[in-house]
């Protein structure tokens, strides 16, 4: 993986983290985050899964 790809990945992760921080603990669904940060849903999901594994976010599975 080259440095540019790594940098873009980190930028995406921080965009997601910053969006969650701005929501002040109110959380957000993957679709909401996708719209807010303009990143594909699969990418947001992958980044959230990693952040969850590292203990930075908690994923809640809510059924409608």
TrEMBL record:
Which top-rank group of organisms is this from?
Archaea
PROSITE patterns per the UniProt record, alphabetical:
HTH_ICLR
Q: Which organism is it from?
A: Halorubrum laminariae
Query: Which Pfam families does this chain map to?
Result: HTH_IclR
Protein's name in the database: Helix-turn-helix domain-containing protein
Q: Which CDD domains match?
A: HTH_ARSR
Enumerate the InterPro entries for this protein: ArsR-like_HTH, Tscrpt_reg_IclR_N, WH-like_DNA-bd_sf, WH_DNA-bd_sf
Domain HTH iclR-type, first and last residues per copy: 7-64
